[in-house]
Amino acid sequence: MSKVSDTKLKTKQIVKKHRGDKSALIAVLQDIQEAFNYLPKDALTVTGKALGIPISRVYEVATFYNAFSLKPRGEHIVKICMGTACHVRGASAIQDKMERTLCIKPGETTADKKFSLETVNCVGACALGPVVVIDTEYHGQVTMAKVDKIIGKLKEGAQQS
Q1: What angle do CA 35, 46, 115 make, to 5 degrees?
Q2: What integer pLDDT is reported at residue 4 of this predicted model?
Q3: What is the predicted pLDDT for the residue at 158?
Q4: Model confidence over 76-131: pLDDT tens digits?
Q5: What are the distances in angstroms from CA 73 to CA 21, 40, 102, 160?
Q6: CATH match for 76-160 among 3.40.50.620, 1.10.287.3240, 3.40.30.10, 1.10.10.10
Q7: Which of 11, 39, 117, 129 could form a disulfide with 86 if both were Cys (CB 3.0 to 4.6 A apart)?
Q8: What is the pTM of this model?
Q9: What are the phi and psi torsion angles at 63 (to 5°)?
Q10: What 3-state DSSP class applies to 107?
């Protein structure tokens, strides 16, 4: 089966899970992103048709929320909190270190598709700043040494798979 038909089939299953309910568009898009790690164009087209929503509306929602990505993302999403509390505790230096370590800028994905780097305005863990969230795991009071340790551990895990 081709990649396109796999995408379409999986998307149809996701829409069916939400009973084809138009009001579930955001939930459908969240599930699609979880399945593919981004929102493929084919999946958005299938979603619009299956829910009876114009594709322009599907794209409007997909591009409105920062949590959605129209570009393929890495296996691990690295988010650096740039909120005030994290900023004053050195988040910019952590961002610089992360960029050097991964050889990418925010909004980019490593060539091997293992990591995507993002900056976010606040993750709501101000007392732990600076905070880095990798996938769903929060890392508080991040230092330069912790960046090496965290990323090293993930790279090690990737090599063992």
Answers
A1: 30
A2: 63
A3: 57
A4: 999 999 999 999 999 999 999 999 999 999 999 999 999 999 999 999 999 999 99
A5: 27, 11, 14, 21
A6: 3.40.30.10
A7: 129
A8: 0.79
A9: -95, -15
A10: coil
- Alpha helix ranges (H) inside the chain: 3-17, 25-36, 41-51, 55-64, 84-88, 91-102, 144-160
Buried b / exposed e along 88-124 (16+ C-beta atoms within 10 A): ebbbeebbebbeebbebebebbbeeebbbbbbbeebe
Helix, coil or strand: residue 152 = helix
User: Are 139 and 146 a contacting pair, CB within 8 Å?
Assistant: yes
Beta-ladder partners of 109: 116
CA-to-CA dists, residue 13 to 43, 50, 110, 135, angstroms: 11, 10, 30, 24
From residue 95, alpha-carbon distances to 103, 118, 156 in Å are: 11, 9, 21
Least confident of 59-68, 73-82, 137-146, 151-160: 151-160
